[in-house]
Amino acid sequence: MGCVSRFLVIISTLAIVAGCTVPKDKTPDPNPEPDPDALVVVDVDGAPIAGASVVVADWTGFAVSLVSSDDGTVQLPVGERLVMMTVDAPDMLAVTRQPLKGPVTLLDDSDRDDSDGDGVSNGEEAELGTDPEVADTDSDGINDGDEAKVIEGFAPVALGANPLRRDMFVELDWWSEFGDSGRFGSGAQDLLNATFRDSSLKNPDGTFGIEVHVDAGEFGGGTAVEVDEWCDYSEPNPLRFDVAPERRSLFFHVTMVPLREQCGHRGIAYATRSVMVDPIVQQDAGVRDLFWAGVVAHELGHTLGLSHGGDEEVNCKPNYPSLMNYDYLPMILMGSVSFSRGTQPPIDENAIVESQPFLVYPGYDFNKDGKISSTPYAMDLNDGTWMDPALAEMLYSVAGRDVEEACSSSGDLTVLTDHDDWPRIDRGLPAAVGLPLGEGNWSPWIGPLDEPVRE
Q1: What is the mean pLDDT of the chain?
Q2: Exposed end of the chain (fewer CB within 10 Å): N or C?
Q3: Mean pLDDT value of segment 277-297
Q4: What is the 3-state secondary structure (H, E, C) of the chain?
Q5: Are residues 191 and 140 part of one domain?
Q6: Is residue 243 part of a domain?
Q7: One domain, residues 102 and 219
Q8: Each residue of 199-218: pLDDT tens digit?
Q9: What is the total count of domains within the chain?
């Protein structure tokens, strides 16, 4: 659970400091000597600015608001792990930076209008490079103001949010009986981030994909949880209460529990931005990290609007190279699969040509007759029976299901198609952020791309 109360014990002291004034019989020094333990807010001429807003955030993202006194000073909390602050004053350009002591110089803001209502003036948007007519420049569901400035309460910018790059925040808890072996470590976090960065989505800052910020305790959130029952998929998800209230509109929530043992799944997404994953903690650390990152990405993909066939519930399509697809899910153990970009050719199950190349199956003996045939024939491919024993065994180890259970088929022979996952992820991320955590269906939007996300 997030640490959100430490500042409260010093608020009364801060209020006294922030509200103190220079005695009336003394003229303020226009160039005061800075208190070594204080921050000083000045204008471009070095004159102190009284009444400036200074919002400081600690390492958990929790932030409090202070006000500069008549001599421009603000006493920062002592002993706190402060990581970010925003200093602002009327008709001035706000400054967001690490909360270092000494002077902070504010420049005049030539355009204080806020055309898009995101809490960032048009002048500040020009400095940042954000769009003054769009409240969420990078389309990640978080307003520019929350990603560019430290705001009182909870400040995403303190945990690395950027208004010019898509961000996704994930709190990751684990069953207490796992101990530290159930904690989502740095290796798995790096792999998860690499999965979401390997994308066709270009950000306003020129980077690609989504930056995933995982809190498995690093930011005071992720922790070991006491839970005895995790197969009750009723909504709302009671595990959401393990996420601090001020985080519940922003964070996705992953809980690591022995899911396979009780529920028959390796992972499940059943409520908004809330998933559970079986960590199989006994594996080799390197393999375990690949598994954790892949299965967590798979379940998060569901919360972003993806089905096992991309935009359809047709599993085990050989030409859909996505970790959403059970055919390709085993390949997470080799670090060789991510979300699909939709580049593979269609396969007509009424006229299969085995010699047709597509991705990791550049010629495959689907009917197991001992040869790679160029003669078309009919076969139901998405029932998974074409898999060789080694691939089927890997599927069971990752998904916890055999081929017959994992790869369901209607029996009809159809045209199987690839799917570009990234436009759907791009639409699903802002659709999910802001909704009540753990309430409602696993995805707030799973329809066609041209359908409204919300009513």
Answers
A1: 83
A2: C
A3: 80
A4: CCCCCHHHHHHHHHHHHHHCCCCCCCCCCCCCCCCCCEEEEECCCCCECCCCEEEEEECCCEEEEEECCCCCEEECCCCCCEEEEEEECCCECCEEECCCCEEEECCECCCCCCCCCCCCCHHHHHHHCCCCCCCCCCCCCCCHHHHHCCCCEECHHHHCCCCCCEEEEEEEEEEHHHHHHHCCCHHHHHHHHHHHHCCCCECCCCCECEEEEEECCCCCCCCEECCCCCCCCCCCCHHHHHCCHHHCCCCEEEEECCHHHHHCCCEEEEECCEEEECCCCCCCHHHHHHHHHHHHHHHHHHHCCCECCECCCCCCCCCCCCCCCCCCHHHHHHCCCCCCECCCCCEECCCECCCCCCCCCCCCCCCCCCCCCCCCECCCCCCCCCCCHHHHHHHHHHHCCCHHHHCCCCCCCCEECCCEHHHHHHHHHHHHCCCCCCCCCCCCCCCCCCCCCCC
A5: no
A6: yes
A7: no
A8: 999 999 999 999 999 999 99
A9: 2
Q: Are residues 225 and 101 in the same domain?
A: no
- Is residue 128 located within the same domain as residue 215? no
How many CB atoms lie under 10 A from the CB of residue 98? 8
Tokens at 429, concatenated: 């991320």
Which residues form the domain of 110?
Answer: 6-158
| Contact (CB, 8 A) for 120 and 97 | no
CA dist 219 → 58, 156, 223, 275, 419 (Å): 9, 11, 10, 20, 36
Please indicate, yes or no, if residue 152 is contained in any of the structural domains: yes
Q: Are residues 22 and 141 in the same domain?
A: yes
pLDDT of residue 267: 82
Q: How far apart are CA 255 and CA 270, in angstroms?
A: 12
Tell me, yes or no, whether 279 and 228 share the same domain: yes
Report residue 198 as tokens: 């390997």
Whether residues 213 and 138 fall in one domain: no
Could you tell me which residues are beta bridge partners of residue 108? Answer: 92
Is 137 domain-assigned? yes
Which range, of 173-182, 240-249, 344-353, 359-368, averages the lowest pLDDT?
A: 359-368
Residues 182 and 103 in one domain: no
Q: Which amino acid is at 433?
A: V
* CATH, residue 256: 3.40.390
Structure tokens at 73: 């000073």
Q: Are 39 and 52 a contacting pair, CB within 8 Å? A: no
C-alpha distances (whole Å) from 305 to each of 139, 308, 311, 371, 420 are: 16, 10, 8, 39, 12
Last residue of a domain, one of 158, 185, 211: 158
Residue 368 is encoded by which pair of tokens?
């197991």
Cα–Cα distances in angstroms (integers) from residue 171 to residues 119, 141, 217, 221, 275, in the given order: 26, 17, 8, 6, 11
